[in-house]
Amino acid sequence: EELHPAAPVDFLQELPSYQSARRRRGGTQRRRPALLGTAGSRGTVARALQQEEGELAARPAREYPECIAEKRRLRDSQQADTEHLSRWKKWRRTSSKSLKKALSEVKGLSSYLVLWRHDIHSIEGKFGTGIQSYFSFLRFLVVLNFIIFILMFSFVTLPIIISKYGIFNSTISYISSKNIDNICTIYEPSGNKGLVYFYTYLKDLLSGTGFLEVTSLFYGYYTTDAVWISTMRYNLPLAYLLATLAYLALSFLWIIKRSVEGFKQNLVHDADPFQSYCNKIFAGWDFCITDPNAARLKHRSLQYELQMDLQEEKLKQKIAERTMKEKLRIYSLRIFINIIVISILSGCFYSIYRVTVFSQEHSSNTDNANSLVNLLVQYLPSMVITLANFIAPLIFSFLIGFEDYTPAFEIKLTLLRCVFVRLANIGVLLFSLWSQISDCGPDKCKPCGYNYKLYPCWESDVGREMYKLMIFDFIVILAVPLFLDFPRKLLVTHCSCKLIQWFGQQEFGISDNVLEIIYGQTICWIGAFFSPLLPAIATIKYFIIFYVKKIVLIHTRKPAARPIRASSSNFFFLLVLLIGLLLAFIPVGVSIASIPSSKACGPFRNFDTSWEVIPDTILQFPSGLQQILFGMASEAFAVPFFMIVCIVMFYFIALARAHKRVVEQLREQLILESRDKMFLIRKIAEAQR
């Protein structure tokens, strides 16, 4: 073979990367070769090379980025090397390969057990990864609610069922009223008695009253202090509280775990605008698409994204060239529009508050003859909340056009306002209920600590409100496709009127549908403490919604012309879901730690608040364990623990900054390598000339 002469040193020093490194370091450095020449460094490098060679030898040949012939040669070489190994190493390598193969086969078989695997792959093939991310998110909520239901049912409902039927020689120890005024223990659920009409059962099913009020669906059913299974005492109040804290913690950790990957992808995508542009040009196509209509839609969406990028750059240039007069005008207009938005939100909140107070005061005063009117009065808060969730986003979408933001920021701000109005409406409803429960006027709640006349078992009343919100939300989700989407589809298909054709088919808005189910999930998290079986209803609800949305997507609606990228949408979905969970922490925490528990029902009758079951249980432990637990709850432990957490947090912040600097250096290195290539191409061209 012809030997190429080594490149002269002077020529290599002319490379842009060398000149840049020399300027940065202030001259030529000789430290690295000197370090590599020492005995310690040579030993370290040798060990690193041996470890790397061992890892490469352990890798199967198919994992190498080589051609088939080279892979076959590597496989033969690896098989020849194994003949010189000892029996122990041969057995370890063989068992490792067998274990990996078995795990791979089990993983492949378990993929067939994934819920809706074929349906979601079919949706992904027809409509792309953006819409597929919505259905995957819906599947995640179904699994999450099913696990929460298993948790609450196993530790709260099942022990009572076992004890009532005497299984495992179990008995029930009911709560005795200790130091409680007799007037506080009066609670008469409005269960149906005697001959009952069918529509009464239907009304009870919709409102959570009547026969449902005395079932295990609501908090008031669990008036049990302990369940004795043989000789073991099962503390139901403690299990009730710990199960509630467990499902909140499980939801939080699971959402955080799933959102980390989406956050990484979103961070990489938003790191460099030029990189985003290159991704759209060279890697923007979704190869999962097999449907021609979906392919045309993907073409239009890529074109739309590029147009939006150009429009944003043009708008940024326009913003930079604004005069002081134009800035004052646009800022004044934004302040005025935000005042309108705040006024709309205030009107929604005040309406919900007044309607909730009216519903609570008049729902129990209606005669049975006017059962329909009674049902409407009970559902007034749910109707007003649903109406506010429908009208407010439409107004926000109209007003955002006058604020002169970039298209991407317009979408984010509108979604944030919609999220706020949906979740804040639930908070206003709960605030209205608590204001009624804690309405301690003259002699209203003196003996019991709460308004016992209007709310003898206030936890069940809050549970019924959450139950009605979930049922009404489910009815609305089913009614919209049936009474709006299908008639609109028929009119667009069979009517040639220009006005109807101009309206066209309704788009399948991913963000609106996600906010819809996150709203329902927030209701489930809040209501599970007051209605332990509410997660089961949520599981059935989302299971049906999956098929309803699939039919709507395929037959009545069209994909949105402004789609959301799958990576960013997954992170956004989980971020909004996390906001809903954090909102759920507040009412559940206030109910557990602040509001006096009902003295007429529930497992916490003998405690001032639900949280008092924790210190009461700790007092039954040995004295040494008590001192440890109370010490962990004291300031002497909290302050050092907080300082250690701060130190760890600062360490990770510094580590993240160091990684960021390394990423920037690697990016600069890639740029310099591209300049070196251009420099070498020019030199070769000059040499050829």
TrEMBL record:
It is a multi-pass membrane protein. Keywords: Membrane, Transmembrane, Transmembrane helix. It comes from the Eukaryota. GO terms for molecular function: mechanosensitive monoatomic ion channel activity. Pfam families: TMC. Residues 21-33 have a biased composition (Basic residues). Its main location: membrane. Residues 457-567 form the TMC domain. It is found in: Membrane. Residues 1-41 are annotated as: Disordered. Belongs to the TMC family. This is Transmembrane channel-like protein. It comes from Cnemophilus loriae. The lineage of its organism: Eukaryota, Metazoa, Chordata, Craniata, Vertebrata.
